[in-house]
Amino acid sequence: xxxxxxxxxxxxxxxxxxxxxxxxxxxxxxxxxxxxxxxxxxxxxxxxxxxxxxxxxxxxxxxxxxxxxxxxxxxxxxxxxxxxxxxxxxxxxxxxxxxxxxxxxxxxxxxxxxxxxxxxxxxxxxxxxxxxxxxxxxxxxxxxxxxxxxxxxxxxxxxxxxxxxxxxxxxxxxxxxxxxxxxxxxxxxxxxxxxxxxxxxxxxxxxxxxxxxxxxxxxxxxxxxxxxxxxxxxxxxxxxxxxxxxxxxxxxxxxxxxxxxxxxxxxxxxxxxxxxxxxxxxxxxxxxxxxxxxxxxxxxxxxxxxxxxx
Amino acid sequence: xxxxxxxxxxxxxxxxxxxxxxxxxxxxxxxxxxxxxxxxxxxxxxxxxxxxxxxxxxxxxxxxxxxxxxxxxxxxxxxxxxxxxxxxxxxxxxxxxxxxxxxxxxxxxxxxxxxxxxxxxxxxxxxxxxxxxxxxxxxxxxxxxxxxxxxxxxxxxxxxxxxxxxxxxxxxxxxxxxxxxxxxxxxxxxxxxxxxxxxxxxxxxxxxxxxxxxxxxxxxxxxxxxxxxxxxxxxxxxxxxxxxxxxxxxxxxxxxxxxxxxxxxxxxxxxxxxxxxxxxxxxxxxxxxxxxxxxxxxxxxxxxxxxxxx
Lengths: 310, 310
Fold this sequence. Notes:
2 copies of one chain form a homodimer.
Chain A: E1 2-7, H1 10-22, E2 28-32, E3 38-40, E4 43-45, H2 47-56, H3 74-81, H4 92-106, H5 111-121, E5 127-130, E6 137-142, E7 145-148, H6 149-155, E8 162-168, H7 177-184, E9 188-193, H8 198-206, H9 211-217, E10 222-225, E11 228-229, E12 232-233, H10 238-244, H11 251-258, E13 264-268, E14 281-285, H12 292-309
Parallel strand pairs in A: 1-2, 1-9, 2-5, 9-10, 10-13, 13-14
Antiparallel strand pairs in A: 3-4, 6-7, 6-8, 11-12
């Protein structure tokens, strides 16, 4: 039984971790958003891939909610003294990932190969695959003009009002070979769209020509888990952004957004009975993942739903 | 009164610090060896410039004897786990210097400009100037073949037997403009060759076409301080290297090596009366610099000798 998960950063990585813990090594392929990637201080940073790497390796910081546990910040302090750019916080241990990745990419390796190597070094049994080896960059049109994603997300802390989103480079990109291979695997039993931001994390992945087609072409059921509970995002700017682009922040809006791409939509139990206003099949489940048990339980539930849907 | 110091790393930086503390801000220009520079993990590392920066900024680690005080090593630990190259130890705070330098150089800045900016940020009153903005790379021919300097010095810990030295790129390099300007300054009162390794630290500087000529053209006296005391190097591989290339490890050999370039040679008091076998003027002084007072006292002594020699 093989499973593909489509994931952005922190929210998606929670369910990816549950799936990783429930499935045998090698069964799970996580296709990660790289629209948030950027070059910063000369380093190639892939925030969502890193969140997945650290989360699946058990290196994530459970208190801060991002980055690595037991992290130190000496680099940032020294950089600040040198007048360097410090708005994007890079921990000392985290830096090793960026330095190694940048060195490998500059040496001609693909992002897929670098990511596979990092995952192997960290002892991760699941595959983590970038959506594409080509650069696709999320840009955000706001009331202050166009901003690169991290400038919107981290530097400006999502404060500017969003007008539109663009995924630069998507038109000429193609899915990473390992992503297409995982989606075409005859043993594929489920495609899980994790509870990531549909507009900022999942849409960049689906914007790569051939990716949505590969999802549709697979006989495996596509199951999406809502990132919106009772009109609120568990974390991050999803609800604010939906409101700004004229959408009602609700699980129903997300379901309608995915539309026919999704076979089954998983609502949080708090939203049970919500009128999705669509013909999509839906079920409710406890989707709030605070503990590892929550993650494992939701993963089990989603895999069971996939079995039934087949 | 202006002073130029010619310096490599740790040994030279001690006297440079003494001079920096004795002279008013702006009076001292330290011309630094960049033959040890290399690209490592995608970063441009300038070990001797960094030693000078940290030493003059009071950020050097007095216990370890290299790098920054209050340093942490989380990056190295994380890099090791990722299978990265860990033979060259990069502290977390030290990394900020390399990342900022690399970013600036890749953006088109000269090494002179980057170094001046770093020194300014660290509140250093003296000028630290690379010997050249062009790459000059020390290579070491050993019984194991040719080695890049840091591979010889750090990775192999100076264990291979040295046959010869080469300064790649020197022939087509030219001195940094600020180095030439400092040497041509009509107010220049002394040129001090610090007690650095003559072959590995000072020779690369003098190998840049125009540098030795600028020293000779200056009316200021050139005063060299011996890095060899009683046939031993205070630190590092100077004596071992001299022995390997067929030279007697002695202050007299160093004096003969500098020859007519130097007007006055400062021996350690332990070597007082040593027959230099040359017509060079020489004096003895306490050259072992353990404390800041030792450094300041030797700096004062050297400056006084320069006054008399003028």
